[in-house]
Specification:
Blueprint lengths: L1 H19 L1 H8 L3 H23 L5 H18 L5 H13 L3 H16 L5 H23 L4 H25 L1 H6 L16 H22 L4 H23 L14 H18 L2
Helix pairs in contact: 1-3, 1-5, 2-11, 3-5, 3-6, 3-7, 4-5, 4-6, 6-7, 7-8, 8-10, 8-11, 10-11, 11-12
Length: 278
């Protein structure tokens, strides 16, 4: 029965999401039940491609990514895949008419990770668009349920939130990106002299993204507003924890927020949401 296979595919996307990201999992659980599976589908697909370029070091990453790209478009066209993650993703893509341009841009950024280790300002912005902003736009397609007018209005705010999340990830993962993967994403950073002045420029840029993102969050449909706000509060908490540390610590450890602190942030989100958004 195809219906059973689709349900299994949904469960696998959910397991993949929960296994790799407790922060996004908390946010997704705060969404309305009828859209959760679609967001799990998007995140599961993104996570699969990301793992190929970041983790599969003993294998031919280019071939694996090329195969995934081909199978992704085939699954969308055929409306089925024997890969459960892609089967779930194609269902969401077809249901909400997610534009192939967003998927194209995502794969370009993943392919970029195979070849480019140092970024200019131009390639940095292109990478963020393809690796993060388009993911926010895929989710926005689900949130507005096919309303093109609302999608176009909220689009820049969704991009700002995706950009903020990605830049915070760059700060959080700087040690692993530099020493394990040999990547430098921020064009302004000199790894021989990471100082407060450099971080102040990055801080200003990310705070601007967060400010713009919150404008959009306030105007999201009720089905997703709280869940997106939870993720927003979590990432702002992580951002300011990173900034509270000495700049040299960015190359010494991966900055984390404890599970207990995540629970506190969730409660904080709930209280703030009730006071400011409802």
């Amino acid at each position: 029965m195809k219906e059973l296979y689709d349900k299994v595919s949904q469960k696998i996307s959910k397991v993949l999401t929960n296994s790799y990201s407790t922060s996004f999992s908390i946010g997704i659980r705060a969404l309305s039940a009828h859209i959760r599976n679609d967001i799990y589908a998007i995140y599961g697909f993104v996570r699969l491609a990301d793992e190929i370029v970041d983790s599969f070091h003993d294998f031919d990453k280019k071939t694996l990514l090329d195969e995934l790209k081909k199978e992704t478009y085939q699954s969308i066209e055929r409306r089925i895949s024997t890969n459960p993650i892609l089967n779930n993703f194609q269902e969401t893509v077809n249901k909400y008419k997610i534009d192939n341009e967003l998927i194209d841009a995502f794969f370009r950024s993943m392919e970029n990770d195979l070849y480019q280790n140092v970024h200019s300002y131009s390639s940095y912005n292109d990478y963020i668009y393809g690796s993060a902003e388009v993911v926010g736009l895929m989710c926005l397609r689900v949130f507005v349920n096919g309303n093109d007018e609302k999608y176009m209005y909220l689009k820049p705010y969704a991009q700002a939130l995706g950009a903020a999340f990605q830049k915070v990830n760059f700060l959080r993962d700087m040690k692993d990106d530099y020493y394990r993967l040999g990547r430098i994403y921020f064009p302004s950073i000199n790894f021989n002299d990471i100082n407060s002045k450099t971080l102040l420029e990055i801080k200003s840029d990310i705070e601007n993204d967060f400010r713009n993102a919150e404008i959009g969050i306030r105007q999201l449909p009720d089905c997703c507003k709280f869940g997106v706000y939870v993720a927003y509060v979590y990432y702002k908490g992580l951002f300011y924890k990173i900034l509270s540390l000495h700049p040299s610590m960015l190359l010494k450890q991966r900055i984390r927020i404890s599970n207990f602190r995540k629970i506190l942030l969730f409660l904080k989100s709930f209280i703030e949401y009730k006071m400011r958004y409802v």
